[in-house]
Design a protein that fits this description.
Helix content is about 75%, strand content about 5%. It is mainly α. It has a two-stranded antiparallel sheet with strand order 1-2.
Length: about 190
């Protein structure tokens, strides 16, 4: 995927070699990957983390956020450098497998799955927490669990019907979020 533009298309063949021409392939663009990354990783950092840091540190929270950003910049630079050495897909699993062997690589792959699962659960919990502040009644355990299950079931159902529908849902959600950010920003600027 080196050298592809943001609007490029990558075709992932899901069929055995003998059936490669039967149309069993899924189209997944690099734009879809960007939107999915934004959806999963940036929500907690945008909505949940700043409020919690402010609650814990008070006026020192901006300094803590800047220090954390500098630390993350070092980590991102290291991952970018390592990623530039590989042309195959696989991310951290591929990097660790190449250096430390298959067993440690599989452990990193499982750890990535654990992290993604935890992030999805934490985001669903955060959404229900915020939604509870707008509801006129307190959210009980059953309502909370049902809301979280629905939030997780919608993208799961979209992905069940194929990578293309899951990627389209991610793109629509990202565009809706960016549109709401833009509208909020324009409204706040016009109020000044």
């Amino acid at each position: 995927m080196v050298g592809l533009s943001r609007s490029s298309t990558v075709v992932i063949n899901l069929a055995p070699r003998s059936e490669a021409n039967d149309g069993f392939c899924s189209v997944y663009r690099t734009l879809d990957d960007d939107c999915l990354s934004h959806q999963l990783h940036h929500r907690w950092g945008i909505f949940g983390l700043p409020g919690e840091v402010t609650r814990l540190l008070g006026r020192a929270s901006p300094i803590a956020m800047i220090v954390a950003a500098l630390g993350m910049a070092v980590i991102v630079a290291c991952i970018t450098e390592v990623g530039s050495q590989f042309s195959d897909p696989g991310g951290a699993y591929l990097y660790v497998r190449t250096v430390f062997g298959r067993f440690i690589g599989i452990q990193i792959g499982w750890f990535n799955l654990l992290v993604l699962t935890s992030v999805i659960g934490a985001l669903a919990n955060l959404f229900v927490n915020y939604l509870g502040t707008f509801l006129p009644w307190p959210v009980n355990t059953w309502e909370r669990g049902s809301l979280m299950a629905i939030l997780i079931a919608i993208p799961a159902a979209a992905n069940y019907f194929g990578v293309r529908s899951g990627a389209n849902l991610s793109n629509v959600m990202t565009l809706a979020k960016l549109a709401s950010y833009s509208a909020w920003r324009a409204l706040s600027i016009s109020r000044r």
